[in-house]
Write a structure and sequence with these properties.
Length: 993
């Protein structure tokens, strides 16, 4: 009777609920349903913390009317008894593309770069599209909706997943019964952003993450200028951006590092983004917490690798292996650190994978209460819709799940998902659970049967006399049908059973033998007891889930605890001071509080750890003036000037080249922008504090530098389809003249006190004119070197450093007169046409002319042996050993304006020192200890122990992965990864779209 009443009720709902009064009715008479529906005897989760035992939930017109243990049920209510079942709020996915087709790349055979926007009346960059609206592209997809409903979701926030500024999203209820007039809860629910370009445009800029960051910064400045009515032209994109500013701002970062980048941009513009993470937030949880950002977290955990091939397994990085082991703990760590987060199906192959991954996260420590919060009240709060969705409070939409028990239990069945009061039946709620163990007898033989699986997909395992019989089972309309083979499997004969279930889960029916004879059938249900064996098995399974410690950085050679500054006393060393004292024999150096405290003989300090340095050499740390390690982007090549970008935005503190450089005695580097354009981006001057976060590597009060470039690279000599200005060396000069003229005019307007449009690029160039920022210029040919010095003198500033400067020996006198330094290679020549005149005596000749000379690497491998590169100047040009050593220590410090802090061993300077096993210019010398500010970041003996520990950890992880495969878990193939070292001409290909 209840079923019939319910069917009539559902039909009436379909005809009338949510119907608009003014819509014509052409398929029958207009009817309005005024009935209630009451769900009784349920365990009701109003919120994750407000739970009603054996309560009633009353709904009407798609909303929650009331709930409790003593609800007055109206007479016109359909009553559904859900005794023993649980009711939860339906889940919410804040980050989805449901119903919105992903834009496709237009077909084009052209390889010519596009530098200008393809639209007019909009922002100058095609990848900025705040005017886009997901509601205008939305088409409800019932099939996809059903998949999400099966996963427990009732509401999704969808958007166009394309571009840097993607426009507004739409909040949609997964209501398969009604139309968009009721499904769409908010047509402009949030504004979405990312660092990735749109596939719909070939516009080159931005061509890097740092370019995307700069574009967003400038966009926000332009939007503010526009809002003040200062713009003289119409810009529909900026108008849309300003109209969307009060919406929730959701940023697709996709990784721990990019969360910090996105938050940095937002903070600078006064915006607190809600940020989509990547699942690796646990690696720098303190940094993530410091952003104060709420996160959206995907549950796409890596599969174990198929490691049976020992050769392929040896190519796996420890970082990738740890990701498989550690990522399931990410939600737990976020929760422990009180970081607000919602969960999403984003990046999963299918929504049906969501529950298994969520259960894995719960097994790894995420509480069920936090899991439910992250799927209900948290996304509702972040979207500003707590009064409508996310809970079962009175007045909320009737979006709820009916389950057989704990929604996060593997064995729990999700029966129904109600959205806006509309029922979607996923499993028959009245179907008995027949899974478990049974015993029965047949023709004097004893049988054991285990039934497992979902009601619509059951499996039976039948054994007798320790022999497993082939079997098949179905359960429909309260009747069980079982077929299993006879003892003689060669005859292919089957015994059939038809039975139903009694109140004690026992099976009663009949058996039909292969010959047609029938016998009564009775199978007794065996209650499972949680015995010591089961507990032991559970304990063993938990022990198998070993989680390896997180290190800093979380890859090979990382520290389990960050090293701290020590008081150290080096005794009886040969000390290369780089000061007037020269080289001191049998000398002690005391390091205290991160500084060089004392230099002398017979020093003592009761708090110091004494290091016997007899027969060894102590020097200042090597400084590489020109490096491209420790960054994820090097070039922003989308324009001929990229002064607006900064390498500081893209530092990669996990790059193992930092550790390798420390092993070569390097303590500081300048990470330069590449040479893709005449005016490049701003530099990052960092200390190689291995294990620290990216921001902690940057020098405090760092001198301001920018990269310029001359020659073949900037005029794109080797480009196949070169259309960008400049294309000649003459054109390069005109780029500088034009930009500095504009910067001079801009600076004058800025200083006048009149209103002006803030331009990040021109601000940076104005700093050069005001002698607040220094230029390191990539250079080769003497004519261009002369040209740039003349341009600088015309605008009354000096070039700080010519880097590479392989024809410096031709113009050393002019360089001296201009006051510019030279940072060169020791002996590179003839690797391209404009280098044909290079000679290995270059450094010595410039040095003899009075130019401050440094030897740089511009190469991740060479930087590990700059001590040997410096030694070549002794051979080529007869430079003294002491002066040659300054080429990689004090002189680059002078060029970088950090020589008051580093570059020599002097009392009061930072304790950035290296203890060498031999003469530092010798090919036999090894860095035994490399210190930065009194912290030992590299130790040769510690390195040996680390290598042994890494080997052991990898072997353990390989064994764990093999065990996972043996348990039947899915694995992924090993794909060999080759990390590309970045150089002057490297392009950020991964960022393109």
């Amino acid at each position: 009777m209840i079923k019939k009443q319910f069917l009539i009720f559902t039909l009436l709902c379909n005809l009338s609920l949510f119907a608009q009064d003014y819509f014509p009715k052409n398929d029958g008479v207009t009817a309005k349903n005024t009935n209630y529906t009451a769900f009784t005897n349920a365990k009701i989760y109003i919120t994750p913390t407000q739970i009603i035992e054996k309560g009633t939930l009353l709904i009407k017109d798609g909303e929650i009317v009331t709930s409790g243990t003593s609800v007055n049920i109206p007479k016109n209510a359909v009553v559904i008894d859900v005794l023993g079942k649980s009711i939860y709020p339906s889940f919410i996915d804040m980050y989805s593309s449901f119903g919105v087709e992903k834009p496709k790349r237009p077909s084009s055979n052209s390889r010519t770069p596009q530098y200008d926007a393809s639209r007019t009346g909009y922002y100058w960059n095609d990848h900025v599209m705040p005017e886009n609206k997901a509601s205008e592209k939305f088409n409800y997809d019932s099939k996809s909706a059903t998949e999400l409903l099966k996963a427990g979701f009732g509401v999704v926030n969808t958007h166009i997943q394309d571009g840097i500024v993607r426009g507004s999203g739409t909040l949609v209820a997964l209501n398969n019964k009604n139309g968009n007039e009721t499904r769409i809860l908010d047509e402009s629910s949030a504004q979405y952003l990312s660092f990735r370009k749109s596939v719909t445009s070939r516009q080159s800029y931005p061509g890097s993450i740092m370019g995307s960051m700069a574009l967003l910064r400038q966009l926000y400045l332009d939007a503010d200028w526009y809002a003040k009515g200062q713009n003289k032209t119409k810009d529909l994109s900026i108008e849309a951006l300003n109209n969307n500013k009060d919406l929730v701002q959701i940023f697709d970062a996709g990784s721990r590092a990019s969360i910090l980048r996105a938050d940095k941009v937002g903070d600078e513009s006064g915006i607190q983004y809600v940020i989509l993470g990547g699942g690796d937030e646990y690696e720098r949880i303190n940094d993530i917490k410091a952003t104060n950002a709420s996160l959206i977290i995907p549950l796409n955990f890596p599969k174990a690798y198929d490691v049976e091939n020992a050769f392929l397994a040896s190519t796996l990085s420890l970082a990738d292996m740890r990701a498989w082991n550690q990522r399931p703990i990410n939600p737990k760590i976020l929760a422990e650190n009180n970081i607000t987060f919602a969960l999403t199906t984003h990046s999963l192959k299918s929504p049906k994978d969501f529950k298994s991954n969520l259960i894995k996260a719960i097994k790894h420590g995420l509480s069920k209460e936090k899991a439910l919060e992250a799927l209900t009240i948290t996304p509702a709060q972040l979207l500003g819709k707590s009064n409508m969705i996310g809970s079962l409070k009175n007045g909320s939409q009737a979006n709820f799940l009916i389950t057989s028990g704990d929604v996060f239990d593997e064995k729990t069945t999700l029966y129904e998902n109600w959205v806006q009061g509309k029922q979607t039946v996923l499993e028959n709620m009245n179907t008995e659970d027949i899974t478990g163990d049974y015993e029965f007898y047949l023709t004097s033989n004893s049988f054991k049967m285990n039934i497992s699986g979902e009601p619509n997909k059951l499996k039976a395992k039948i054994t007798s006399a320790e022999k497993t019989r082939g079997s098949k089972i179905t359960f429909k309309d309260e009747w069980i049908n079982i077929a299993f083979t006879t003892v003689d499997s060669t005859k292919q004969e089957f015994i059939r059973v038809v039975a139903n279930v009694d109140t004690n889960k026992n099976l009663n029916g009949k058996t039909i033998m292969p010959n047609g004879n029938e016998f009564p059938f009775y199978a007794k249900y065996i209650e499972k007891e949680i015995d010591s064996i089961s507990k032991s098995k559970e304990k063993k399974e938990s022990e198998e889930e070993k989680i390896f410690p997180i290190t800093f950085p979380n890859n090979s050679y990382g520290f389990e605890e960050l090293p701290k500054a020590e008081t150290l006393l080096f005794k009886n060393a040969t000390v290369w001071t780089n000061e007037s004292d020269g080289i001191l024999k049998n000398t002690d150096v005391l390091i205290k509080n991160g500084k060089i405290a004392k230099i002398g003989q017979d020093l003592s300090d009761s708090s110091a750890k004494v290091i016997d340095a007899k027969g060894k050499h102590l020097t200042a740390g090597i400084i590489d003036e020109h490096s491209h390690i420790a960054a994820v982007s090097i070039n922003e090549s989308g324009q001929n000037s990229s002064a607006e970008v900064s390498i500081e935005d893209v530092i990669d503190e996990t790059d193992v080249n930092i550790y390798r450089n420390l092993a070569g005695g390097v303590t500081s580097i300048q990470i330069l922008h590449g040479s893709a354009n005449p005016i490049g981006g701003r530099s990052a001057i960092i200390k190689l504090k291995w294990g620290e976060s990216a921001n902690n590597l940057i020098y405090k009060k760092s001198p301001k530098f920018i990269k310029f470039a001359l020659g073949e690279n900037v005029k794109q000599t080797r480009a196949q389809n070169n259309v960008r200005f400049p294309q000649t060396r003459m054109g390069v000069e005109q780029v500088y003249m034009d930009y500095f003229t504009r910067a001079k005019e801009y600076d004058a307007l800025k200083k006048s006190g009149k209103p002006y449009r803030k331009d990040i690029e021109l601000d940076v160039l104005a700093e050069i004119l005001n002698k607040e920022r220094f230029i390191s210029c990539h250079s080769y040919v003497q004519s261009e070197i002369n040209m740039l010095m003349k341009v600088a003198e015309k605008f009354n500033f000096n070039i700080n450093t010519f880097t590479h400067i392989l024809e410096g020996y031709k113009v050393a006198d002019k360089m001296k007169a201009h006051g510019v330094g030279g940072s060169t290679f020791s002996d590179w020549w003839a690797y391209k046409y404009e280098v044909n005149d290079a000679i290995p005596y270059n450094a010595a000749i410039m040095h003899d002319a009075g130019v401050t000379v440094a030897i740089n690497s511009d190469d991740a491998e060479m930087s590990r042996r700059l001590n040997q590169e410096a030694a070549k100047s002794v051979k080529y040009g007869g430079v003294s050993e002491e002066e040659a050593w300054k080429f990689v220590t004090l002189n680059p410090a002078k060029l970088l304006h950090i020589d008051s802090r580093v570059g020599s061993i002097k009392v009061g300077k930072d304790a950035d020192v290296v203890l060498w096993s031999n003469h530092p210019l010798s090919i036999y010398a090894k860095a035994e200890k490399t210190l930065i500010e009194g912290v030992t970041y590299f130790d040769l003996e510690q390195d040996k122990m680390m290598r042994s520990k890494i080997k052991k950890e990898k072997n353990e992880l390989i064994n764990m992965m093999m065990q996972a495969k043996n348990k039947g878990l899915k694995t992924q193939p090993i794909k060999k990864k080759i990390k590309e070292d970045l150089h002057c001409d490297s392009i950020d290909n991964e960022h393109q779209h």
